[in-house]
Structure formats: C-alpha cells, structure tokens
Amino acid sequence: MLDVITGFAIIFVVISAGYILAHRGVIGEGEQRLMFNRVAYWVASPSLLFTTVAKSDTSTFLSPVVVVVFLATAVTMAVFWIVSALFFKADVPTRMAGAASASYFNSVNIGLPIAIYVIGDATYVAPVLLMQMVIVSPVVIAGLDVNPDSQSSRGQNVIKAVKTGLTAPVVVAPLLGLVVSAAGWTVPAPVMEPLEILGGASIPMILMSFGASLRGGSVLAEGPDRPATITASALKLVFMPAAAWLLGLLAGLDGTALYAAVILSALPTAQNVFNYTANYRVGETVARDTVFITTFASLPAMIAIALLFGKGI
C-alpha cells in the first residue's frame, strides 16, 4: 500500500508546490505559467516517452488486457461525445478536451505503483502507455487543434488536424522508442542519459503548472464547463471501469487479467490531458477540474474495485 500512497503523494506535493509558487508570484499567470507546459510538450515529455518505450518489452504490447483497455477508452470517449452533443453544446476542441478527460488515464506516476502493488504486475504499464500515446494522443491532439473559426474547408481542416496529431512530438517519440525496442537496439549512453534527465523534468513541470492554474480559480465553479466536468469525472470513475469489466468478460478475460483491465481503467485522468489543452489553449477548465476530481476520487474507487474482486488492500 505504501507504493500506492507514494504515487499519490508525489502528485499532491508537486501540485501544491506549483500552487504555492503561483500564490507567492514566483510563477506568473498566462504565458509564464504556460512555458512549463510548452517545454514539457515539446521536449521533456517526448524524452520521457522515448526512453520508457525504448527499454520496454514489445512482446507485451498486444496483450488482451491492453486491447480491452483500448476499447474501454474508445467507448468512453464516444459516450462523452454523444452526451455532449445532446445536452451541452460545445465546439470540437472543447468537446475533445472533455472526451479525453473522461478516458485518458495516468499510466506513469500513478499507474506504475498501482500496477506493482494493487495488480502485482507492472507488465501492462508500458504497452498501455504506448497505446495511449500512439493511438489515442493523435486523435486528441487533432481534435484540440481544430479551429472552429477557420475559413478553410472542412476537408482542409481535417487534413491539418490529422497532420498535427500524427506529427506531435509526444506521438513521434514513443513510435521511435518502439522501433528501438522492437529492433533490439541499445541506445548509447551519451544519447540515452541526457534524454532521461530531460524526461525526468516532464512530470514535475506539468504538475507545477497544474497547481499554478488552481490559483485564483475554483473547481466546479458555475459556468458552461461545469456539466462537461461532472460528466467526464463520472465517466472516468464509474463508466470506464464498468466498460472494461464488461468488455473483458466478452473477450474471455478472467482472474488477474480482468482485474488488471478494470483497475487500469479506473486510474485518474492524466495530467497529459491538461498539458495538451494548455498547449492549445482550449478546454483547460474541463481538463484541470477533471484531473483534480478524479485524482482525489480514484483511490477509493480502486479500493472498491479490489474488494469487489476479492482482493485485499
């Protein structure tokens, strides 16, 4: 249990540091705060993703657990999209921010300790991370990059969005890492070690920017983003784990494999979603508030899942 608590403690402490620094004026508003997100998006996060995937075992990437988690992610995004279209109208970027918040989960600094302690096996973390970055991230980034006020044709907008999604540094980096891992290459230390140092800055920068963004704002404040935030949080904490359980049963999973798929699907919304929205300056409030809510509420949710599966905590 200590590993799980440590994973959550890392997040809360670094977020608090960002909040305090913003409160004291060390981290300014607007462009100054967003510099953290831009450095993370363009340099630190790609470095982290490349080094993580390059050292992973590609034989686990097509595990049935990973397939079930991917399907649960896709279904959850689709459900948010439908609910949003029916009940709270929004443009494409804002709707994509909510759909990502409802389904894109933290597979690194919370996912790893959860996998090790709660599931008892960290095998699925790297392939799930790769699935999110290579398949889900391009879709999310493409949606966030859509300009609803553009004078270009729909076809031109789609081509531009797809190009942006597929060429984003956080997508290209894990793909390169996959090539290295699949080929069995060893990256020379003078190349790998600087990238590992840069990658180590990714999570702290994103979390501190997130903490700074809480300064002067309140979670679930009255406004047009509130219904989307509540919907995304409910889908992330309840619907997505339930979808993973049902899809897992249909796929023939049982025992530890089914438990792993459900627990991974119950992880809180990833700070990467906030980083993406901050970088594109759309849907930031929905992403920020959903990350905040699910980070606090996911631990009791996962404890409940463990008890339902007859696992001790």
From TrEMBL:
Q: What is its main location?
A: membrane
Q: Which residues cross the membrane?
A: 6-27, 39-55, 61-88, 100-119, 125-144, 165-185, 197-216, 228-251, 257-278, 290-310
Keyword list (alphabetical) reads: Cell membrane, Membrane, Transmembrane, Transmembrane helix, Transport
State the membrane topology: Multi-pass membrane protein
**Record-level GO BP terms:** transmembrane transport
Query: Do you know which Pfam families this protein is assigned to?
Result: Mem_trans
Localisation: Cell membrane
Its domain of life? Bacteria
Would you name any one GO CC term? plasma membrane
Q: Which family does it belong to?
A: Belongs to the auxin efflux carrier (TC 2.A.69) family.
Protein name, UniProt field: AEC family transporter
Organism of origin is Corynebacterium appendicis CIP 107643
